[in-house]
Structures are given as structure tokens and as C-alpha cells.
Task: inverse folding
């Protein structure tokens, strides 16, 4: 896993570009971000909001397909 992490970190573009935004989204989808919060009110764990919503979308796909089948489209 560390070889993949090193390879992905080599691809990081400079900050402030559109490519960095795409890179950051892809990187945080694969790995947990390096930033940590120091306060007690914002606690981060391994399941951030982006990963949770990916699982929600995956869970909705069967319901969406079954609904399309029932409607006849």
C-alpha cells in the first residue's frame, strides 16, 4: 500500500489549479487525508463524508434500477 501512496503523492500538482482539485478528490477517496484537527468538536475518523456518500449512492443503485423496472422505462 505504501508503494501506491508514494506513486500517487508523486503525481500531486501544484496547489491552486483545477488539476489539484481533481487530485485532492481522488486522493481522499483512496486514502485518509493527512490533516488532523486539534479541537475536540471536529473529530475525524476513517469514514469521512465523501466515503459515506459513495456508499449511499451505491446502496441507492438497486432501488433505482428496481424502480425503473416497475415503471417500465
Result:
Amino acid at each position: 500500500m505504501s508503494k501506491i501512496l508514494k506513486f500517487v503523492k508523486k503525481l500531486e500538482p501544484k496547489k491552486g489549479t483545477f488539476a489539484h482539485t481533481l487530485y485532492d478528490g481522488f486522493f481522499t477517496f483512496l486514502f485518509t487525508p493527512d490533516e488532523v484537527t486539534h479541537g475536540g468538536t471536529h473529530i475525524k475518523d476513517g469514514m469521512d463524508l465523501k466515503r459515506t456518500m459513495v456508499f449511499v449512492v451505491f446502496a441507492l443503485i438497486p432501488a433505482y434500477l428496481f424502480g425503473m423496472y416497475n415503471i417500465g422505462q
The two ends are 43 Å apart (CA to CA). DSSP finds three helices and no strands in the chain. The CA atoms of residues 46 and 67 lie 33 Å apart.
